[in-house]
Amino acid sequence: REGSTQKAALIDRVREAVDAYDSIYIFTYQGLRSTHLQDVRVEWRDSRIFMGKNKVIQIALGTSEAEEYQDNLVQVSKMLKGNAGLLVTSRPHEEVMRWFEEFSVEDYAKQGHVAEHDFVLERGPLTQFPNSMMAVLRKLGLSVEINRAKLHLMDDFVVCQRGEPITAEQAKVLVHLEQKIAKFSVDITCRWTDGTFEDFS
What is the C-alpha separation between 199 and 189, in angstroms, rounded? Predict the structure, then answer.
């Protein structure tokens, strides 16, 4: 069956990488879009990154001491859950940790993202929008009128509040305002090198 052939091929690729490179790291991420993950892949193209098939990757590493592919890989396997990936690399440990500590991407917030700051649009002219946007903005809850051939906001509009999750409408308003309020980062949770396992979580 095609599915089991692909599964076996992935298991082989993971084990070949374990044999070919010095260290294995698990990284976790929240809300990263595929374009951001592509940035990570490009930066680490001299290494191997495995993502999206946690269960199969766990089988490749081993799900018990009796089945682990090399000593202590079962510890790595246990840490691979949720939004996580496997980085298999020969780059120095300090470089790996520094790169992931410094990696962060600003992006538009999605629905459910918890705002870190208050953001209020004050009443008055909305010079950044053409008049043709009036219907769109009204649909998103803004009280707008055309005044002297310009769009005007008639009342203050709370785009988002600190500590509150953002609604779908608020997320759209932020995109129209070109406000990227979400920061996405990647955390390294553990490292395996030559049979030695370290938990950083």
Answer: 6
